[in-house]
Amino acid sequence: MKSKNLSELSIEELIKQQKTIKTIIGVLSGMLLVLLVLGIWLTFQKPSFLVFIVIPFTFIPLLIFNAVTLKKIKSELHSRENNK
């Protein structure tokens, strides 16, 4: 799927993307937290499970990318409100 430039999207499409990305960030943050806690717990149970601590940190760039995209959408919506 080819993504459009944010300036080409309508306000409704931007709001829809904003809601979707907020949901994604929330779910991903929750999953990463659960994975980190589970990884720490498993490491204390059996020291060979150290790899489970690394897994949440590999998904942090995805979380950062979504946060940056959300910030761009918010600034685009804000700039359109100021232009009215």
Structure description:
The chain crosses the membrane at residues 21-43, 49-70. Keywords: Membrane, Transmembrane, Transmembrane helix. Helix 1 runs antiparallel to helix 2 and helix 1 runs antiparallel to helix 3. The model has no long low-confidence stretch (mean pLDDT 88). The chain starts with 10 loop residues before the first helix and ends with a helix. It has helices at 11-45, 51-58, 60-83. With 84 residues, the chain is an all-alpha fold. The protein has 3 helices and no strands. It is rod-shaped and about 60 Å long.
The overall average pLDDT, rounded, is 88
Tell me the strand percentage band.
under 5%
In N-to-C order, the SSE pattern is HHH
Number of helical stretches of at least 4 residues: 3
Count of structural domains? 1
Low-confidence stretches: none
Largest sheet: none
What is the share of helical residues? Answer: over 70%
The rough form would be described as rod-shaped
Determine the N-to-C terminus distance: 31 Å
Q: Rg to the nearest angstrom?
A: 18 Å
Q: Find the count of extended strands (DSSP E, 2+ residues).
A: 0
> Structural class, judged by helices and strands?
mainly alpha
List keywords for this structure.
84 residues; rod-shaped; 80% helix
Structure in a nutshell:
The protein is 80% helix and 0% strand. It has 84 residues and is mainly α. Helix 1 runs antiparallel to helix 2 (51-58) and helix 1 (11-45) runs antiparallel to helix 3 (60-83).
